[in-house]
Amino acid sequence: MYKLRKYAAATAAGLTAVCMLSGCGNSIDPEDIDYSVQLLAPDEGDDIAIFETSMGTITAVLYTDEVPTVVQNFKDLVEDGFYDNQVIYQVVPTVGAEMFGSSTEDGNSPTSNTEKPIKAEYSDSLWPFSGSLCALCGEMGQLWNKGYYFDSRSFFIADMPIDEETGEQMQNNYFPAMMVNAFEELGGVPGISQYHTVFGKVIDGMEVVNAINELPMTAIDMEGEGASSEEYEQGYTLDEPVTIEKVTLGSFHAADYDELDNTLTQEEYDAMVYTSAEEQAAIDEAIANGTYGQEESEEDSTSSSESSESSAE
Question: pTM of the prediction?
Fold first, then answer.
């Protein structure tokens, strides 16, 4: 338990990470990404988790086939009743994160089905779009044996629209056109891609997730956590606690839902695939010709020149 407590203190301070397509040490081939896993509706019979909270019910599909170790840890703890009557112990509104999974309200008492941190597991096809259910991961180990680990602590991502600056950063980091379009359509937090493990998606109750992110809250004093405001997003505690009263496991049946949150129709998905393929072909050609990004640079230069001339007048 000492190791878990020490690990919790090191990671509970914030959620900032910029692994992008590098995957925190994992090399990702864009051709291996199956966007349909997250963007389309679950398959009949897929695992789901139902969170009954003091704000309302949240239902999430679990990606058992993609990250089986992470999902099994979550399932085992649900069966043990670990998450029942816990509070959302920290919120990071700038990235829409709502954190739970500690038996104490300070976030420093997690566990796992092995009673120690577990080596992180990732899928090339899972990305932190709005509505994602993620395992909180952190770096552990000595210089010669470092790695990323998770435990019971997890978080939901509320609706987080992608602003123009973030979109430009994704393009500058050579995110595939399909991924850029998916983030722009669904929102999310691309800066934590392949760092905190996505293991589920909210398919019903997104209004509850968004409501929690808008509740009155108070900033957490970061002193003593080894973090500064420059290093981490600021965390907050809710002024009135939100309780996860009970979590139960079940199976997805399409007939139970009139519509699904964070989900594209097949027609919408096919249109995004088609448009993205055309955009990607143009990008690949520009990269091959050494002209990628030059048009934007020329526009910026023209804008800067016009601004200077206006100031001079």
Answer: 0.86
